[in-house]
């Protein structure tokens, strides 16, 4: 679970979502088989099926990324290579990851609730707990 709490220290550069109107127009463009400018019942069913499949694929890809990141963290911080993190290894990981977060302006802005440019112990713990809660919610949806 400790490794799961570090998942917000990942790659930057997420793309902002399109506007809702643009997304709707694209859905109609792609799925309006009879080209009447609207979606009939069959076309709507196809859209729903595609969205479900896309969502499942995104979830699986996200799970794979989480697993890879956890394995990467374990490999990076498991100094004695016993397949688990002891107290010293966890402390080292905590220190390193916290420093990485503080070097990422967008992430720091989210977690640094008092705006002083540093993460207090309270801010760091709260950020980790949010990630753990989000991961547990995702697992519950399975």
How would you characterize the overall build of this protein?
The radius of gyration is 21 Å and the shape is elongated. Residues 1-17 have low confidence and may be disordered. It is built from 5 helices and no strands. The chain has 2 domains: 21-77; 85-142. The longest helix is centred in the middle third of the chain and has 37 residues, at 41-77. The chain has 142 residues and is mainly α.
Overview features:
mainly alpha; 142 residues; single chain; 2 domains
Quick structural overview:
The chain has five helices and no strands. By secondary structure, it is mainly α. It is elongated.
Give a topology summary.
Elements: H1 20-31, H2 41-77, H3 87-102, H4 105-111, H5 121-141
Q: How many distinct domains?
A: 2
- List the total number of helices: 5
Task: Note the overall shape.
Answer: elongated
Helix fraction by DSSP (H/I, runs of at least 4): 55-70%
Sheet bearing the most strands, described? none
The count of β-strands is 0
Task: List segments where confidence is low: pLDDT < 50 over at least 5 consecutive residues.
Answer: 1-17
Order of helices and strands: HHHHH
What oligomeric state do the depicted chains represent? single chain
Instruction: Provide the residue-averaged pLDDT.
Output: 82
Terminal Cα span: 18 Å
Into which percentage range does the β-strand content fall?
A: under 5%
Structural class by secondary-structure content: mainly alpha
Instruction: Evaluate the radius of gyration.
Output: 21 Å
